[in-house]
Amino acid sequence: MDTPETTPQPSGLGAALGAYVIWGFLPLYLILVRSVPAVEFVGWRIIFTLPICLIIVAFRRQAADVLRALRNRRVMLTLTASALLVGLNWLVYVWAIQKNYVYAASLGYYINPLVNVLLGTILLKEKLSRAQWVAVALAASGVALLLGGALTTLWISLTLALSFGTYGLLRKQVDVGSLPGLTIESAILLLPAAGIAWWFAASAQGTAIDDSLSLTVLIAAGGALTAFPLLLFAIAARRMSYSTLGFIQFLAPTIVFILGLTVFEEELKLVQLACFILIWTAAAIFIWDLWSRRERAARPANAVSR
What we know:
The chain has about 300 residues and is an all-alpha fold. The chain has one domain. It has twelve helices and no strands. The chain has helices at about 10-30, 40-60, 65-70, 75-100, 100-120, 130-150, 155-175, 180-200, 215-240, 240-250, 250-260, 270-305. The two termini are about 40 Å apart. Residues about 1-10 have low confidence and may be disordered.
């Protein structure tokens, strides 16, 4: 079983980037399954995610870790809570993209890093430098600009930000490996997902899984597009500072923002452009500060080696 780590590791960066790039381009996939109701799609998404997780568990010989977690009451309660949070997050996100609220979805994940920083500093006692607090202030200012012009869809943005921010915090603290944890979360959600699939199959409109072979394949692909980025995120969340992870997350909503501007052809308002500039300035300051601190920390070791 993996154990929680308290210091950032370089290996966590690749996992974080992989997860956020996949999530950033996910709306392109959701365009292809737009005809499937959001609730039904999320149900099938869960159903197809579990087998993939079980196959990887068997390949990596982590069945014992899954069984160990299943016997731990505290771990199961935490994973139940995280499963419900990620299920809610999926549903709201898919619905928002289907209804062309792309900027609202993007805004939710712009707010999420601020939630991560808040949770990391208050609950995990992580500390930010002066430059990082400047970055937080700039990002908060950018979000505040968007909040002023997006009140009608604010519930979408806040639900996405709070649900995923809390999900990441729970997964960082629970004593279970990344893959076993995701497998158990998928199993917890399987029963309600199966109920949703059965309800649509029994309804007059029928289930989308029977519409065509190509659509069925696309729906099934949602399992892989769910399992792999969530697994990467869980790995990153356990290996990196939660505050740092939060700022790397700006990558995904920026990709979504650009897709909204180009592929979805939503109108770009001046206030949205101003927010975009402020948030990327904040991210640049935060990353520069992290790089500078690592360089200073490495100098004594380099001097000794010479």
